[in-house]
Amino acid sequence: TNQWFLPAVRGDIPPGCAAHGFVCDGTRILVFGGMVEYGRYSNDLYELQASRWLWKKVKPQAPSNGSPPCPRLGHSFSLYGNKCYLFGGLANESEDSNNNVPRYLNDFYELELQHGSGVVGWSIPVTKGILPSPRESHTAIVYCRKDVGSPKMYIFGGMCGCRLNDLWELDIETMTWSRPETKGTVPLPRSLHTANVIGNKMYVFGGWVPQSAGGEISAPDGEWKCTGSFSYLNLDTTEWIGLISDCQEDKSNLLPGPRAGHCAVAVGTRLYIWSGRDGYRKAWNNQVCCKDLWYLDTEKPLAPSQVQLIRATTNSFQLKWDEVPTVEGYLLQLHADSPVPPMSGIPGTGVPETSVLSSQGSGCSLHQSPQSLPSVPYPEMKVDHPSQTNNLIPNNVQVSLSSNSKVEGKEKVAAPENKVTQETMKNHTDATGFKESNAPSLLPVCTSSAQTSANVGELHDLDKQTVNPDASVSSTVSSTQTMVTQQAVKTESSSTNGAVVKDETSLTTFNSKSEATETAYVMPSTRVNTGQTNDSHSAKTPQRPVRTRDRRWYDVGIFKNNSAVVSQFYLLPEEMLSNSNKTEGADVPDYRLLKKQDLFPGTVYRFRVAAINGCGVGPFSKISEFKTCIPGFPGAPSTVKITKSVDCIHLSWEPPASPSGNILEYSAYLAIRSTQLQENPSQLVFMRIYCGLKTSCIVTAAQLSNAHVDYSSRPAIVFRISAKNERGYGPATQVRWLQGKGSGTHS
C-alpha cells in the first residue's frame, strides 16, 4: 500500500536513540547501543517481535574471556545465521556526560541468538591478521558466494578524526582479517553512508565526504559535505563501479540529493533509500533534514509463475499468477491457435482512454526513450521521478522518488492516485492506463499519513481465514486457481487445455511447456484409454510438433496486480509482428493506436506473463493454455466452501450462474497419488468422489488419505467440481485446500 503507519508497541519500550545498531531476523528486530542524549551512550540490547509489536529488553551473558561491549554509538551490527557481529564505534571516556571525551573503538564481538526469540550471550572471537583501525559511522555487510567460499564480512569507510575509504575483509569461518586489493575507482572517504548487498554487489550511497578538491583525506578540522554519489563493489571480483559521481549535476531532481545519516534496505533486488540530512560542515544551522523515499531497481525481475485459470466463459478467462515482489506491473500476452490477421484487417472494438505507457500526476512510468536523460553520463543507469513521464534505457538501473518530500521544513504530500477496487469481474483501463481487476491496485512509491495498528490486526485475521482450512474457501479468492474447460459429449473425444478427454467424467489439466523449446502444436482428437477404475482418470495428450509459421504473441495489456479478466487482446500492425516473439525486453507499444480482438468460443489460447520494473520487462513465465467454453454447456459451479470436521470435510458449492438448461448432476473429484504423477508432476490424476444432484458432499478420511498434495505454489489438496446438463459436462472449478499449520497435511 506504500502507506506509513504507527504501530501500537508495548512491553519494554526503549528510549529514543541515535546511531544505534539494528538487525532484522525474520519477524524480530534487535537494537543495540546508540546515543540516548548528548554524551550519554547505551549498551542495552532490545528485541522487538514485529508480529506482535512487543518490545523486550534482553540481557545476554557476558563473554567468558572479557568484558561485555561498553556503551557506544556509530558501531556496525551485522547478522549472519544465528549470530550478530559487533565492530567498533565511538565511546565516551568521561564519566560526565557533559564532558565528552571521544574514544574510537575497534573491538569485535559475537552475539549468539536463540531461535525465534532471545539471545544466548556475547563472546570475543580470537581473530588472526591485522585488525581494522578504530572507527565509527562505518558500514559492515556479510556476503557468501553461492557456489564456493565461506561467508565474509566487509567493513568500509567510517570516521576516526578524518574520513576513511579503506576496505577490510573478515573470513567468518577462519576469523582472519585481511585488506583485499580492489580495482576501479575507490569511492571518496566517507562516514554515515549506507552499504547494502544485492546479489554479489555491495551498493554504497551517500555520507559525509571531504570538501577539499580531489577528495584527499582531510585533517580533523577540515571541511566536509554531504554527497549523493553512488557506487557498487563487485564482491566476486572486488572491482568498484561508479554509478553517480560526486560532482554530477542533477538540475531536474531525477536523482536522490546529497545526504548522510540516512537508512537503506534491500527488498529482493530493489534498494530503498529513506530520509537523512544534507549540509556543509557539521553545523545544525547549515543542515536540511530530508523526508523523501527513493528506490533503485538493480536488475530486471524474475519470471512469474505459470498463469493459472480461475474461471472460463465462452468469451473470457479469469486468470491469476503468483506475485513477484517489488515490481510495477505485469505484461500478459496470449497466442491463439486460430489464425489472427494483423491490425489492418480486423475492425476495432474500442481503445483505452489513455496510454499504458505513461501515467499522469505523480505515478511512475514504466517505459522510457534514451534521449529523455541526456545529462546522465552512465549509460547503464536509469532514474525515475514519479512526477515525470520517462522512457526506457536498455540495460538500465532505475532510481525512483516518492512523491512525499520535505525540503527546508516545507512538506509536500501527494495523495495516492489509485483507489482500491473490489469489483470482481470488471476489466478496464484506469486513469494511469493500467488495467484493473479485483485485487487492490499497486500504488507508486508514495506514502500516506500514519495510521494506527488496528487495521493490521484485521489484515492478519483476514489472512488467517484465507489459509486456515477450517475457514470457508471461496472459488473467487486466492485459494481457487485453475479451472479446466472441457466439452466432452457422450464418449466423443475432444481436445481441451492441452489434454484429450475420453468421456464425460474425465478431468484434465492445462499443458505447460518451457518457452525456450516451444514450437507450434496441433492437438489431435484421439481417444485415450486411461486404464483406471473407480472413476479414476488420468489425462494425457499425444502431441506432434508441426512446422508452421512463427508463433505470434499478442499483448493482452499491462496489469498492476497478479490477476486479470481477459476478454480481448490487442492486434499488432504487420511490421511489429516479427518482434512479438521476443521473450523479454521488447518495447511495449502504444495501446491507444491499436485495435482489439474479442476472444472466440471453443478456442484454445496460450498465455505467458512477464514482470516489469524500472529496469524493463523481465523474462516470460512458462506457457499455459486454456480453452474458452462452447455455448450450450453449463458454466462452472461457484462459491465453493470447504468446512473441516473431526473425521471428514464438507464440500459445498453454488449452481452455475449460466446453467444453459437443466442441471442433471454434479461431479466432484479429488487429486490422488499415482505412479504416473511421479513421472509427470504437472499432470494431476483425479478420482471421482461424488456424483449426484446435491450441491454438497462429504470427503471421508479414507479418501483424504490417498490425496495428492500439490506443491506448485503453496502446499494444497486439489478438488474439482463440474456440472452436467443435457449437452454434457461443462468446465470444472478447481479449489486448492491450503495445507498449513494444524490442517492435517496429507502426503
Overview of this protein structure:
The protein is mainly β and 747 residues long. The chain has 4 helices and 54 strands. The strands form 16 sheets. Strands 27, 36, 40, 44, 45 and 46 form a 6-stranded antiparallel beta sheet that branches. Strands 38, 49, 50, 52, 53 and 54 form a 6-stranded antiparallel beta sheet that branches. A 5-stranded mixed beta sheet has the order 1-5-4-3-2, with no helix packed on it. The chain starts with 9 loop residues before the first strand and ends in a 9-residue tail after the last strand.
Largest sheet: 6 strands, antiparallel
Percent range of helical residues: under 10%
As a percent range, the share of strand residues is: 35-45%
Coarse structural class = mainly beta
Number of strands: 54
- What is the mean predicted local confidence, pLDDT? 73
Radius of gyration: 30 Å
Judging from the principal axes of the Cα atoms, what is the shape? Answer: elongated
Task: Reconstruct the topology from this structure.
Blueprint: E1 10-11, E2 21-25, E3 28-37, E4 40-49, E5 54-58, E6 76-80, E7 83-92, E8 102-113, E9 119-123, E10 139-143, E11 152-159, E12 163-171, E13 176-178, E14 194-198, E15 201-205, E16 208-210, E17 224-226, E18 230-234, E19 239-244, E20 263-267, E21 270-274, E22 277-279, E23 287-289, E24 293-297, E25 308-312, E26 317-320, E27 329-336, E28 382-384, E29 398-401, E30 405-407, E31 410-412, E32 428-429, E33 435-436, H1 454-467, E34 494-496, E35 499-501, E36 512-513, E37 521-522, E38 536-538, E39 544-545, E40 554-559, E41 563-566, E42 568-570, H2 574-577, E43 596-598, E44 604-613, E45 616-620, E46 623-627, E47 638-644, E48 648-654, E49 665-672, H3 675-679, E50 685-692, E51 696-700, H4 701-704, E52 709-710, E53 716-725, E54 728-738
Parallel strand pairs: 1-5, 28-29
Antiparallel strand pairs: 2-3, 3-4, 4-5, 6-7, 7-8, 8-9, 10-11, 11-12, 12-13, 14-15, 15-18, 16-17, 18-19, 20-21, 21-24, 22-23, 24-29, 25-26, 26-41, 27-40, 27-44, 30-31, 32-33, 34-35, 36-46, 37-39, 38-50, 42-43, 44-45, 44-46, 47-48, 48-51, 49-50, 49-53, 52-53, 53-54
